[in-house]
Fold this sequence. Notes:
Pfam families: Asparaginase_2. InterPro entries: Ntn_hydrolases_N, Peptidase_T2. With 294 residues, the protein is an alpha+beta fold. The chain has seven helices and twelve strands. Helix 2 (44-56) packs antiparallel against helix 3.
Amino acid sequence: MSEWALIVHGGAKTIDVALHDRNREGCRAAAAAGAIVLQFGGCAVAAVEAAIRVLENDSIFNAGFGSVLNADGAVEMDAAIMNGRDLSVGAVAGVRRIRNPIVAARALIPARPVLLAGEGAERFAEEQQIALCDPAEMIAPDRMASEYAKAHDTVGCVAIDMQGHIAAGTSTGGLPGKHPGRIGDSPLPGCGLYADDGIGGVSLSGDGEMIIRTTIAAHVMHALQAGPLCAAAETGLAQLDRVGGEGGAILIDRHGRFGVAHNSDHFAVAIHGSRLAEPHGAVHRQELEGLLDG
Length: 294
């Protein structure tokens, strides 16, 4: 396989009209960063990490710098990355001092355990020469503003490289005002993400507790084996509707085709690939009509 493809999301949410362009631009920048890795023959895991790092560094998104605050006024972040080549996973949860949680998650892929939380995850990151920071440095002034009070989004990416390997990743600051120690769906395979070279990959955003209860990523992966990508994503969201949840899903299959679905007002997304001249950004699935499968 000599082609590659990548899709990113900045969260399923209601986006103020004044912030539409900034969300599109942020997602396009992330897609471009991941594309550079893939264009030069890099692996899907590295591309997913590169794309999500850009999203974590952009305070418009609820991940990394600019994550929402918990009930104690602190940032607590979760992230995960999965390699569809061998089904390996790395995940961190409840971290406060890791500037880019997705970097620590990737570092866990060849190690055990799969998931580390809190101080244990931060200690592991330090052992891997991943620089830690003061937790206060992760708080963006924007997150004090009322316009973010209802934010509950996650960022994510799915990619397929020239060798046909697929990876998926997620990163989030979780729910605003959450109970300290709360962990959502983002670091949990089968819930917030999944990747399998023989099928495809998916990354979710939305109501974490509802996604955990319904294991949306697992439902999507099963449906992906039977039909078009967007239909597979809708199958997963139907489970979310069942429990009154809101969210969105991005997909890539083993042929490099894209799928997007959401039941939220908006879903910040960007796609790029060897068949596209540049990344395409959107805040609603309808903006990507003609570029999606099904």
